[in-house]
Design brief:
48% of the residues lie in helices and 12% in strands. By secondary structure, the chain is α/β, with parallel strands linked by helices. The strands form 4 sheets. A 5-stranded parallel beta sheet has the order 6-5-4-10-11, with helices on both faces. The longest helix has 25 residues, at 542-566. It starts with a helix and ends in an 8-residue tail after the last helix.
Length: 574
């Protein structure tokens, strides 16, 4: 029987349920409703391996003091599985359980046999999930906020795939509307400057050197395609017939840059979905989607505009789909886009948006429900802003002013591994300070270095063992009872917790839980390494050395597994 932390929790839960059943049969407890048993890992190790507040929860209904209920429960426990070393009542009615050490040690056999599949349950069972992330306007280089969203989205997709979901990664290309038009106009103004002509730069246009770079490429393209430069103003009749081509060219150049930056960051997408495809007059998906909403009774006309009846689904007010002047709102294309997603057979949609989209969530959830799907089939993760620090001082950022720090800047400065890992060291909806100087340090202050060095340190141990011709014992030859040091037990318990961490991270869409876990595991490994020699010349300690090498092998496997999910490499040398 496998007794990992989560299955030990399940086993202990079943033991407690049986104890409650016996107590009820004896008339010691009423238990008019089936209680929910929750077991947690105490922060204080002196409180055991697992603890429950069940006695406190039952006290009111039972009309008994919590400690009395706890004593009744403990008196009725029959540990046929033999996993409990000691149990105790503590405080006002907590019940603490200390589990047998040999049960913890068997976790190492599980890791050894399952290797990189250890901890990766088949939760998804092939269910189709789409993760849409980054989806930046192709109007400028990706900034660090996009980078954080990219790291979160890719790690989440990896995580969901690891636990059995069929995941598709998608980038929604905002290639229609005002912003790309503004980019085209900004580039055209810089193009005119290259020609020596004066040009009015749009008041809210895009600045930065990248606009001048695109202007130079535009100049080469115009000369190649048309044989001569365009010298007329943007709003002239001569230029108007080429505007769409110019905008498409600028958008493509910028999108190619975005794709290159993401590729260098280790991010791949299965689908690049253009917004413009929803507005194609030959197959108008927006119009079709709105017609379906009308048929379903969730779209209506009022005051010359077309409205979504989103209040039916809990939104604070109905939303305009089509304005009085006949133009579509942003919501219109989002309606068509999410209808398209649902039509592709995804049962779960995950959208990763900037924190400024918080108020937009209810209306898109309303769209999902209006098309006949459950509200909770859409999950939106909000990504808070990133502050870049240099020498402890924040770097100001503004895309239009051209003063922002790009993702490319950060990756070139600290590397993709450091950037990805640091982006994942906080909850997505928490503000993140990214200190470029710390990200390059070789110290404990640098979280990615600290974890990667733990892996490299273990790799160096195995290189030394190979040099000395010391084999890692097979599972049938290793004596796990020799791993009796407190530091060894702490590492084993941390390894046993990995399946639970992976499962909870997947079910809550929180990949940052893995970075928290890795920091703790790396800390235990470094502490152990400093205090105890793994390889020694003392022949009397040969069996102990073999057991410690076996332990290190499993730690290395788990670190590799978690880093792979996060999209970070596990170096053999540093």
């Amino acid at each position: 029987m496998r007794l990992l932390l989560d299955s030990m929790k399940q086993t202990l839960t079943e033991i407690l349920l049986e104890a409650l059943k016996r107590a009820k049969e004896k008339g010691e407890l009423k238990l008019e409703t089936q209680p929910v048993i929750t077991l947690e890992t105490p922060k204080d190790k002196s409180h055991g391996d697992l603890a429950t507040t069940l006695a406190l929860t039952l006290a009111k209904a039972e009309g008994k003091p919590p400690r009395k209920i706890a004593e009744i429960m403990l008196a009725n426990i029959q540990d046929e599985e033999g996993i409990i070393a000691k149990s105790e009542t503590a405080g006002p009615g907590f019940i603490n359980f200390f589990l047998k050490q040999d049960r913890w040690r068997k976790t190492l056999f599980d890791i050894d046999s399952e290797a990189h599949e250890y901890g990766l349950k088949d939760i998804g069972k092939g269910e189709k999930v789409q993760v849409e992330f980054v989806s930046a306007n192709p109007t400028g280089p990706l900034h660090v906020g996009h980078g954080r969203g990219a790291a979160i989205g890719d790690a989440l997709a990896n995580l969901l795939e690891a636990v059995g979901y069929d995941v598709q990664r998608e980038f929604y290309i905002n290639d229609a509307g005002r912003q790309v038009g503004l980019l085209g106009r900004s580039v055209y103004a810089r193009y005119q400057e290259l020609l020596g002509n004066s040009a009015e730069f749009p008041e809210d246009g895009y600045h930065g050197e990248y606009v001048k770079d695109i202007a130079a490429q535009l100049q080469a393209w115009i000369r190649k395609e048309h044989g001569q430069d365009f010298t007329k103003p943007w709003d002239s009749s001569e230029t108007s017939r080429y505007k769409n081509d110019i905008i498409k060219f600028c958008t493509k150049v910028m999108l190619d840059e975005i794709k290159k930056d993401l590729e260098d960051f280790g991010i791949r997408f299965d689908v690049w979905f253009p917004e413009s495809s929803l507005l194609d007059i030959r197959d108008d998906k927006v119009k079709q989607s709105v017609e379906e909403l009308k048929e379903r009774g969730y779209a209506y006309e009022q005051d010359g505009a077309l409205w979504l009846k989103s209040t039916v689904f809990g939104d604070d007010k109905d939303r305009v789909i089509k304005k009085k002047d006949g133009s579509w709102t942003y919501l219109a294309t989002d309606i068509a886009y999410h209808r398209n997603k649902l039509g592709r057979g995804f049962t779960q949609l995950v959208n990763i948006w900037g924190a400024d989209h918080h108020g937009y969530i209810p209306r898109v959830q309303a769209v999902i429900e209006a098309f006949g799907h459950p509200k909770d089939s859409l999950h939106v993760l909000l990504v808070q802003l990133v502050s870049i620090l240099r020498q402890g001082q924040p770097v100001p950022m503004s895309k239009r002013a051209g003063t922002f720090v790009t993702l490319r800047d950060v990756v070139q400065d600290v590397g993709a591994d450091a950037a990805r890992y640091i982006f994942l060291t906080r909850r997505s909806d928490s503000h993140l300070d990214f200190d470029l100087d710390i990200a390059k340090e070789q110290s404990r202050e640098n979280p990615v270095y600290y974890v990667q060095y733990a892996h490299a340190r273990i790799a160096s141990v195995f290189r030394e063992a190979e040099t000395r011709k010391i084999p890692v014992p097979a599972r049938d030859a290793v004596d796990l009872a020799l791993l009796d040091l407190e530091e060894e037990q702490n590492i084993i318990k941390a390894l046993a917790k990995y399946p639970e961490v992976v499962e909870e991270a997947a079910l809550t869409y929180e990949p940052h839980r893995l970075t928290f876990y890795l920091q703790d595991l790396a800390g235990l490994l470094h502490n152990y390494y400093f205090k105890h020699r793994i390889i020694t010349d003392d022949a009397a300690l040969a069996a102990v050395m073999g057991s410690r090498l076996f332990l290190m092998k499993q730690v290395k496997t788990v670190i590799q597994s978690a880093l792979k999910i996060l999209g970070v490499t596990a170096p053999e040398r540093m």
